Amino acid sequence: MTSDSRNNVQTLAEAVDRDLRARGRSERAQKEKAYLKSELIHFGVSVPDTRAVVREALRGTALCHDEVIELTRLLWAAPTPEGSSSGDDTSAGKAQQAVDATPPTGASAPVHERRAAATMVLIQSKDRLGAGDADLIEDMLRGAKTWALVDPLAGDLIGPLSESDAAVDPVLERWAADRDFWIRRSALLAHLVPLRQGRGDFGRFSRFADAMLEEKEFFIRKAIGWVLRDTSRKRPDLVFEWILPRAHRTSSVTIREAVKRLSAEQREAVLDAR
């Protein structure tokens, strides 16, 4: 990127930071931090408000691929002292109130809402992304360590990319066997949106889910059930035929989600088989 382009991206990142701080609420920050068991700083900004901040920042811009990636990296990283002090007195005061709602974690600590904004930048710019960006997304998934960041990256970003770029396929295959359960969860949730809409590669999801079906990790069990539940919106018979012969080795967490949209007769058959 040129120096002018880099400066423009930096200005955008500072604007997002400033607006997030202005919308922050200390009570929400405390509750969200506790709920997510988060080690990050929290400003206390809702997901819809964070999305609105990102949408406003990107309105009227035409960021190229490299600018999207740079903006994402800046927001994902901890704020710089310059960025954290930007804004007028009113927004700075609200920001300080929100930051003070969390225990001191050091000046270089990342911020949950900035990371959420970074994921939204990628999702809103996915038409400029492809398999070549998988390493960056994987690094973000490994660093996220919470469903609140992992799930949108997997479901709303990797899922659509896997449909538009076949080079994502080997990435998902590798993720499905990764030691990090957040990465394995991502391999499952990448199928969520396409299967929910009646498309997608159910055969691949089936292989991944079958291999993970007896795992003890709650977030894996929940993800399998979630994808099956949403697949059954359009294809309940497909889900029924898949889950029935596996019911005896499927966790109650997975079963509970998987049968929600099945007919009463199908649901009873699955529960009896278990």
Percentage of residues in strands: under 5%
Q: How helical, in percent, are the residues?
A: 55-70%
Mean of residue pLDDT? 91
pLDDT < 50 runs, ≥5 residues: 83-106
What is the count of helical runs?
Answer: 17
What sequence of helices (H) and strands (E) makes up the elements? HHHHHHHHHHHHHHHHH
What does the main sheet amount to? none
Shape estimate = globular
The rounded Rg comes to 20 Å
Which class do the helix and strand fractions yield? mainly alpha
Count of extended strands: 0
Distance between the termini: 57 Å
Summarize this entry quickly:
This protein has 274 residues and is mostly helical. Helix content is 67%, strand content 0%.
Task: Offer a few descriptive terms.
single chain; 274 residues; mainly alpha; 17 helices; 0% strand
